[in-house]
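User: I'm putting together notes for a lab meeting next week and I want to include a structural view of one of the chains we've been expressing. I don't have a solved structure, so I'd like a prediction I can at least talk through. The sequence is below, exactly as it appears in our construct file.
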Amino acid sequence: MTLLRAITRGLLALPFLALATQACVRLDEPDSFPCSTPDDCLANETCGSAGRCIARGSCNENIDCQDAEYCLNQECVPAECTQDPTPACGSYKCNSYERSCYKSCAGDYQCNAGYLCDGTACRPFANLANGSPCKYAFDCTSKICCINTSHLCSLTCSP
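Assistant: Thanks for the context. Below is the predicted structure for the 159-residue chain, given as structure tokens.
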């Protein structure tokens, strides 16, 4: 009789053994399971850019966040801006990759329309005609301000 019980118990355990060898069970959190769509992840997770399940609201890069957010220290936070033009950035353009306003400039491409990069700051473009008093070359349509002599916009400056 004991042999029969042992065989019966063994037969009853076979389906559980088969299930355990074929199923993937998450035991510890947080896990980083591979995914290709959000449906591959748990309800409180999404499929991150690296092809791994990540907690909703966390990120590896901006693409893991909603359109109006960006990734900062692996957390999705509200974006300062998402595209140009935006009044939120003032004289600077929006860095659409970083989803934040430029804070300084290295060239005119970082300044909004009507502004030019003057060293590291975006200044309003005055668009003054030749012969007009000026302080900076950016003030003049010709981009030449004779600051060493006349302080007038000109096509050329005489020594």
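A couple of points you could mention at the meeting. Confidence is low (pLDDT under 50) at residues 3-8, 10-14, 16-23. DSSP finds one helix and eight strands in the chain.

User: Perfect, that's what I needed.
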